Amino acid sequence: MTGKEYEILEFLSLRKGTTLTKEMFFNRLYGGKSEPEPKILDVFVCKLRKKLALATGGSHYFETVWGRGYVLRDPTIRSGTNAQVSTGKGRCTALN
Predict the structure, then answer these.
(1) Where are the beta strands (DSSP E) in 1-96?
(2) pLDDT, average across residues 47-69
(3) Calpha distance 12→91 (Å, rounded)
(4) Does residue 11 or residue 88 have the better pLDDT?
(5) Coil/strand/helix, residue 18
(6) What is the mean pLDDT of residues 11-32?
(7) How far apart are the two ends of the chain, measured CA to CA in Å?
(8) Nearest Cα to 2, choosing from 35, 32, 44, 40?
(9) Is the pTM of this model over 0.70?
(10) What sign for the dihedral angle of Cα 2, 51, 42, 13?
């Protein structure tokens, strides 16, 4: 896990159940300094989702709140009978 991924996970964990906007993440991660491209957060979250799913046997912790940001919830396990959760699955191909 990279330093930024850890910071994202920590921030979500401290505010579990609360939707965090991209602006909130950028303020936390970059402290208002020159911020990178807005899509970089999506990439970090995608990679983090994949790593956590691998480490937890397929559990998904993040939900995307469309147009708002991300929220950390209790894990859901993907199977044919479980309700579908918006986890962003399939958007990121790199796992560095």
Answers:
(1) 20-21, 59-65, 69-77
(2) 88
(3) 20
(4) 11
(5) coil
(6) 90
(7) 9
(8) 44
(9) yes
(10) negative
Compute how many other C-beta atoms are within 10 angstroms of the C-beta atom of residue 69. 19
Query: 3-class SS at 19?
Result: coil
Residue 56 has pLDDT above 60, yes or no: yes
Strand pairing category for 59-65 and 69-77: antiparallel
Going from the C-alpha of 52 to that of each of 37, 56, 82, the distances in angstroms are: 24, 6, 19
Instruction: Give the residue from 2, 66, 67, 47 showing the smallest Cα distance to 29.
Output: 2
Strands (E), 9-84: 20-21, 59-65, 69-77
Place 83 in a pLDDT band, splitting at 50, 70 and 90.
very low
Query: What's 61's DSSP letter?
Result: E
| 62 three-state secondary structure | strand
